[in-house]
Design brief:
With 256 residues, this protein is of the alpha/beta class. The chain is built from twelve helices and nine strands.
Amino acid sequence: MRNILLSAATVLLAGTTLVGSAHSAELPKGAAPNIVLVHGAFVDQTSWQPVAEILTKKGYNVTLVENPLTSLAADVDATKQALAKQTGKTVLVGHSWGGVVITQAGNDPKVSALVYVSAFAPDVGQSLATLAKSGPATEGTAAIHPDDKGNLYIDPKVFPSAVAADLPPKIAESLANHQLPLNHVAFEAPVDVAAWRDKPTFYVVSTKDKVIAPEVQKLFAAGMKAQTTEVAGSHASLVVHAKEVAAVIEKASLAK
């Protein structure tokens, strides 16, 4: 999985000039120096690699959380361990399922802002299952099925068009065939904290998303009173539109 996603990052960043380096770049005055990136279900932390490359070269200290995807508590713990290693203000960012994780973990005092990227945004008492039932069915959610161990996958035949229509077809197909499952207990666990209620919050809406309907993403953003940016991308916008996503995270780093 890691090599596949790194291949995607290499393809999509080819020809892109990134100005500065982690050694020479200076952050804007007052910016949160730390960025913690939380990945979604079915992929690993390298889905954030294109964004991480951009932010690192601009001088940010970037950490990629490796979610076990076994339960909400386990993923929240992994995120809290990453936050514990940060010194100073930190922007916490979640993609897809990662939005549920940062909602629960984001009450850490180091977290200065939250960024949701094509992400679920529950309120207290809501689970991923609750949110999935309340919104319109999409091609992606309709293709999620459990195996005999209770692990959830997206039908590999549907994955390329539903999740990654704007990635190169071979990479999308490889991702489909090398998914990391989300255990059903994570799907059903409600959050008991909604960190966005007390933190500056930003949302990147992917207008061609076939996993979380764009209109639902807009409802999440409105409910959180988030500053909203739209990108014309699929659920894989964090890879395909890495520059736009990184720009939102940079803006969040300056939030008061």
